[in-house]
Amino acid sequence: MDEQLDRRTRRTREAIKNAFVTLVLEKGYDEVTIADIAQRADYNRGTFYNHYLGKEELLRDIHDEFLQGFANALLRPYEGLDRIAAKDTFPSGLMLFEHIELHQQVFQALLSVDKTLGHEVYNVMRESMRRDMHIEMEDAGPPIDYEIMLSYRMSATVGVFLYWAETGFKYSAHYMAEQLMLLVDTRIDSVTFIRNS
Questions:
Q1: What pTM did the predictor assign?
Q2: Which of 3, 61, 87, 99 could form a disulfide with 73 if both were Cys (CB 3.0 to 4.6 A apart)?
Q3: 190 pLDDT exceeds 70?
């Protein structure tokens, strides 16, 4: 009986979340009402309030769930491993892009409501890189400050995520992960300045 209730609760919450995300993308967060959400989810307002105090709590739940999935995706490919070569980091990049691809509308809705989401994604990745793994640099050239390197790489990665969203996810997650790997491994040869005549 409890399992049926849990399943029904999850189903109801999922319908409410989906309705909310769709409405945010259609109307904007400020214009969405509880009545709108309940109607779109095909429930009444009472059912909504059985699960959430208001749309702020609903937004926080969606936000936290998205970021938690992001943190999980970063490490999932390496469970049970102690060390990998830099060239073998493609699976985690792919899983991050797949997480966004699977939750495209959620990502876009959250970005439209919270302009700091990119920074939060950056923090989730940087904290995981500090806590759960350590990048070892090659012994070539002058020493690179670890924190600066981490900040640079995470900022660049988030920039690629945001670019992908701006383009309406026109490329596949696999293509984006490949491009990110190429960017990380590519050294710039020169910069040409374009002069307007």
A1: 0.85
A2: 99
A3: no
